[in-house]
Design a protein that fits this description.
- The chain is an all-alpha fold and about 130 residues long.
- The chain has one domain.
- Helix content is about 80%, strand content about 0%.
- It is built from 5 helices and no strands.
- Helix 1 packs antiparallel against helix 3 (about 50-75) and helix 1 runs parallel beside helix 4 (about 80-110).
- The protein is elongated, with a radius of gyration of 19 Å.
Length: about 130
């Protein structure tokens, strides 16, 4: 395989990882914020919030490991552009971490931490909920 082809493939994979982290965070946050039944389920179901946090943390760690390995490959091929490539991958890593922490912080703030009105959603009937 030519080095140009390898660079294109590695860049495609790294961009896919960044895209996955962004879409996952935005989709979960939108669902959590706009769906009362989903929001209530995350808040009140036994250990669901903790399981979601563990899953999001695992995905974040795996994405960081993958991005780190991909950046090593690209840096090895970068020649005189190593510093630029390192900075580019550092920026991608920041995006992965920030967007991975978004759903974790939402679940921690509204699903795990006890606050006075946490369990009131279970008592209220949710509009458009299946019966």
């Amino acid at each position: 395989m030519k080095s140009d082809d390898l660079v294109n493939h590695v860049e495609l994979y790294s961009n896919a990882i960044v895209g996955f982290c962004v879409v996952q965070a935005l989709a979960f946050s939108t669902s959590f914020g706009s769906s009362p039944s989903f929001n209530c389920l995350v808040k009140t179901a036994d250990h669901l919030a903790e399981g979601l946090i563990a899953t999001f943390l695992l995905v974040m760690i795996l994405c960081i490991i993958a991005m780190r390995q991909l950046s090593k490959t690209i840096v090895a091929l970068a020649g005189r552009y190593k510093n630029v490539v390192r900075k580019m991958y550092a920026g991608k890593m920041v995006v992965v971490i920030v967007f991975s922490l978004l759903p974790i912080s939402l679940v921690l703030a509204y699903g795990v931490v006890e606050y006075p009105s946490k369990h009131t959603c279970a008592a209220k009937p949710v509009a458009n909920a299946p019966e």
